[in-house]
Amino acid sequence: DAGVIQSPRHEVTEMGQEVTLRCKPISGHNSLFWYRQTMMRGLELLIYFNNNVPIDDSGMPEDRFSAKMPNASFSTLKIQPSEPRDSAVYFCASRKISGSTNEKLFFGSGTQLSVL
Amino acid sequence: QQQVKQSPQSLIVQKGGISIINCAYENTAFDYFPWYQQFPGKGPALLIAIRPDVSEKKEGRFTISFNKSAKQFSLHIMDSQPGDSATYFCAASKGGYSTLTFGKGTMLLVSP
User: Fold this and answer.
1) Cα–Cα distance for residue pair A7/B39, rounded to 1 Å
2) Longest dimension (CA), chain A
3) Which of B41, B56, B69, B72 has the smallest count of CB within 10 Å of its CB?
4) What average pLDDT does chain A have?
5) Cβ neighbours of A109 in B, within 8 Å
6) What is the distance between the alpha carbons of residues A10 and A15, in angstroms, rounded to a whole number?
7) B67 CB-side CA count, 13 A
8) B residues 28..47 contacting A (CB < 8 A)
9) DSSP 3-state of B83
10) What is the Cα–Cα distance from B35 to B49, expressed in whole angstroms?
11) How far off is chain B from A116, nearest CA to CA, in Å?
12) What does the pLDDT average to over B77-92?
């Protein structure tokens, strides 16, 4: 199993540019999460999907952020326009929901975003 | 989201010593308490988890101690090794399809 795959690993862009982060969850997992990690705020949940449907996007900072999951094997997080304060590591994670148990969350290796 | 408070922010322990990281939570509905370990350049990975029906869970050198009445839980790393140097996150969630609420993390450095 290749695990959760994120691309790109690093992204450097200029303020005002559009940024798209990509994620391929583990096959068979039906829940997908986008997190943002910074030194000041730790791991923040931005949005999560169950069976490709967005369930809670209350963590999305503002309208500049959007996320989609067109199918079970692909999700994107888009920032348009990007700002320097968006600089962070963005993680995608997935898990398999089964019954009432809290299944293990698997994280990708993250995308290091730097907005100049 | 309900808060999970983690301390200390950073910790330096000598090789062979005991590392202790503490977390406190507010929501009494939480019923799942995992710890995640993150190495530089990697995503967090589940290390060990506990449910409130037990007060302690041990896996190798890693132990979770859980105090339901105090709403606190802690991670103990016995015989700490330089390879344990990482950032550790505690987390909590309610049952079912709920999401994890993470603490802010503890950077552990085990000196040789």
Assistant:
1) 19
2) 45
3) B69
4) 93
5) 41-43
6) 16
7) 10
8) 32, 34, 36, 41-46
9) helix
10) 6
11) 21
12) 97
**Amino acid at residue number B48:** I
Closest of B110, B87, B90 to residue B18, by C-alpha? B110
Residues 6+ apart with CB under 8 A from B85: B108, B109, B110
State both tokens at A25.
């969850």
Which ranges constitute the DSSP H helices of A16-63? none
- Collect all residues of chain B within an 8 Å Cβ-Cβ radius of residue A105: 36, 46, 100
Q: How many CA atoms lie within 13 A of B20 on its CB side?
A: 7
Q: Which two tokens stand for residue B74?
A: 């802690």
The CB density around residue A7, as the number of other CB atoms within 10 Å, is 14
Helix (H, G, I), strand (E, B) or coil at B97: coil
b (16+ CB within 10 A) / e for A93-109: bbbeeeeeebbebbbbb
Helix or strand (DSSP H, E) at B72: strand B72-77
pLDDT digits (tens, 9 = 90+) for B18-43: 999 999 999 998 999 999 999 999 99
Beta carbons within 8 Å of A20's beta carbon, 6+ residues apart: A76, A77, A78
